[in-house]
Amino acid sequence: MGSGQSAPSTADTFPKLLLENAKRIGERPASREKDFGIWQSWTWSEMKDEIAAMAAGLKVLGFERGDSLAIVGDNRPQLYWAMTAAQALGGVPVPMYQDAVAVEMQYVLEHASARFAIVENQEQTDKLLEIKDQCPSLQSVIYKDQRGMRHYDQDFLMSLGALEEKGREFLAANPGWFEAEAAKTQGSDTAIMLYTSGTTGRPKGVVLSFDNLVKTAANGAKWDNLNENDEVLAYLPMAWVGDNIFSYGQSYTAGFCVSCPESTDTVMQDLKEIGPTYFFAPPRIFENILTQVSIRMEDASWFNRQLYAYFMGLAKRVGPAILDKRPIGIVERLLYAVGEFLIFGPLKNELGFSRFRLAYTAGEAIGPDIFDFFRSLGVNIKQLYGSTEASVFICMQKDGDVKPDTVGVPALDVELKIADNGEVLFRSPGVFKTYFKNEDAAKETKTADGWVHTGDAGFFDADGHLKIIDRAKDVGKLTTGTMFAPKYLENKLKFFPYIKEAVAFGHDRDFAAAFINIDLEAVGNWAERRGIAYSGYTDLAMRAEVYDLIQECVSKVNRDLAEDVALAGSQIKRFLVLHKELEADDGELTRTRKVRRNIVAERYGELIEALYSGASQCDVEAKVTFEDGRTGNIKATVAIREAETVAPRKAA
Q1: Distance (Å, rounded) from C-alpha 498 to C-alpha 522?
Q2: Residue 362: which of 392, 400, 390, 389 has the closest Cα?
Q3: Fewer CB within 10 A of the terminal residue: the chain, N end or C end?
């Protein structure tokens, strides 16, 4: 088979795919990691040997079929390898969010009955030590990084190096053992257990089989022609299902290399050095990048600002057409080539986007202006719609058929339908097996004939593209009878670089209102340019000038809503800027940064009532959790503003 094409595979599990790739493309790079500023690489053959040693070490330690292996840490090759090692033994890896506090980890460890855990470093080890007495099933903790671990002498602790050494001794005495164990795995076996973000309650353990993940990953790779020549940068949480497809499943099915950054702080620099061809980021990442570009352009010389403005104007007119291979005039094509040389190319190189062949975003709606900005530069960014219960892919966008306001068409082998109440349902090879220890919830989510309730409200446009409005349970009505879709309003607010989070209210109320969290970096830069001094987030958020800035954003959203006949009546009439940032550590956001609407409504009930009472301000006190774990209180007088509303456009 020629270079750049993945051989068709009959392997139905990741351990089998590992052996197949080690044999077929054994000398190609499979994994990279930057450590102490130096990139280290492992080929597929070398990675197979490392995984075999790890699996054998776990076997010696007493790991048995059906055991759960908790995995905690940043994206590290060894933690990805631990997943395959556990799978080869018939076990179930359970990745956990590395920034979760100990009590959150305790719930997952107890619920999954994890006997073994592999963690990255001292920080994660300390979390498990803190809760070990409350997790009686946890027997062994293995740590990768030995820094700071010299004086830890608990008998249940072991370094990853020591585990692998035991494994190599076992393999020397039992040649062919790993290959035999991998061959025992079956597509119907449980491959992994991933916990939902828990926006409305306790996280649920989603049980996914090899058939779910391997077939879905292979279909996604086929959709976008991914192969062993592609490269990705793995920087999103391993506990998130998307990372398990993009950085794990598709790597095994397509054979490409996965690179792990040195740290979360060096992701953008490492992105430039690796120059991946395949990239995934939630909308917030793309929004932050565009904000940084805009801030830097404000610092540029007058000539450079004019040059940038001219060519970006050109790019917005013709860039998407060039990307989609639609015909444009020769003059504009030549001018675009000049812009590529002077502006677009250097900018993409600076961002690490030069080699992008494909980029995806999902999780939240992305602002049309942001989406169009990157496509104008020639970045093939597309949107997808997925869920943990689907093994990610439900809808995807095809090259040349990309819209900023839809999530595309059904992915390969996916069936979609819209229920009478507007809820989206799907059926696919990726449909999860069950919720662990929660069959009742699984039956509520998945019908007997395999249809899964997404909980999202949506509809198909004239071209067969799916549009998602909101969570079906969150869609309500104002007392006027107007539909109220809070997520839709929140996303429109968050399209502005100055707004980081928003929470909308309005169900069974006379009008829509909103809480706003400002983006400290973007608004801080804006304030500094205007000579506005401030001492921190709360001080800046309370400034009248900042309220004026946010009021302009709310007014623009209302003008957009006025054009939508169905939603014109849900324009935001009153708003306030919260005195503190909504934080996952305070329980207000999930670890995937989704708003826990019920908790916010309960915690800030007095502010909600002030929005609807006509008050112009409200005294409030809130508890906050600092980075070192300490807690404190913030007191503030929060101003409430009226927003400009617009007469709705008459229906045709």
Answers
A1: 6
A2: 392
A3: C
Indicate the SS3 state at residue 215: helix
**Unique residue bearing structure tokens 């009478």:** 420
Which amino acid belongs to residue 543?
A: R
In angstroms, the Cα distances linking 468 to 177, 387, 406, 463, 564 are: 49, 13, 7, 15, 15
CATH of the domain spanning 14-207 = 3.40.50.12780
* Cβ atoms of residues 406 and 465 within 8 Å: yes
Longest dimension (CA), the chain: 80
What is the helix (H) or strand (E) element at residue 568, kind and residue range? none
* Span(s) in the chain for CATH 3.30.300.30: 475-642
User: Could you identify the residue written with the tokens 């077939």?
Assistant: 215
**pLDDT of 126 above 90:** yes
Report residue 589 CA to chain centroid gap. 14
DSSP calls for 429-473: TT---EETT-HHHHHHHB-TTS-EEEEEEEEE-TTS-EEEEEEGG
> What crossing angle do the helices spanning 160-173 and 177-184 adopt, rounded to 10°?
100
| Tokens at 525, concatenated | 């830069």
Query: Which part of the chain is CATH 3.40.50.12780?
Result: 14-207
* Inter-helix orientation angle 160-173/44-61, to 10°: 90
Mean pLDDT within 6-20:
86
Q: Which residue has the tokens 């998130």?
A: 240
pLDDT band at 18; cut points 50, 70, 90 = very high
Secondary structure class of 482 (helix, strand, coil):
coil
Cα–Cα distance, 85 to 57 (Å, whole number): 9
How far is 396 from 310, CA to CA, in rounded Å?
Answer: 33
Structure confidence at residue 488 (pLDDT): 86
Report the percent of the chain where pLDDT is more than 90: 77
Distance CA 370, CA 283 (A): 9
Task: Name the 3-class secondary structure at 276.
Answer: coil
Report the pLDDT value the prediction gives residue 214, as an integer from 0 to 100: 97
Phi and psi at residue 75, to the nearest 5°: -65, 110
Q: At which residue do the structure tokens 């609407």 appear?
A: 597
- Residue-wise pLDDT for 273-332, tens only, equals 999 999 999 988 998 898 888 888 888 899 999 999 999 999 999 999 999 999 999 999
Question: Distance from CA of residue 493 to its chain's centroid?
Answer: 20
- Per-residue pLDDT reduced to its tens digit, 19-51: 999 999 999 999 999 988 899 999 999 999 999
Q: What is the pLDDT of residue 627?
A: 59
Mean pLDDT of 267-278: 94
Per the CB < 8 A criterion, the answer to whether 212 and 431 are in contact is yes
Contacts of 500 by beta carbon, 8 Å cutoff, 6+ apart:
494, 517, 518, 519, 520, 581
Whole-angstrom distance, CA of residue 411 vs CA of residue 391? 12
- SS in 3 state form for 45-58? HHHHHHHHHHHHHH
Write out the two tokens for 249: 């499943």
Neighbour tally for 396: CB within 10 Å: 24
Q: What length does the chain have?
A: 652
Distance of CA 133 to the CA centre of its chain: 32
Q: Does residue 583 surpass a pLDDT of 70?
A: yes
439-461 average pLDDT score: 93
Cα 382-388-392 angle, rounded to 5 deg = 30
pLDDT at 7 over 80: no
Q: Summarize the confidence of residues 99-116 as an average pLDDT.
A: 94
Taking alpha carbons only, the member of 497, 435, 17 closest to residue 221 is 17
Over the chain, what is the mean pLDDT?
A: 92
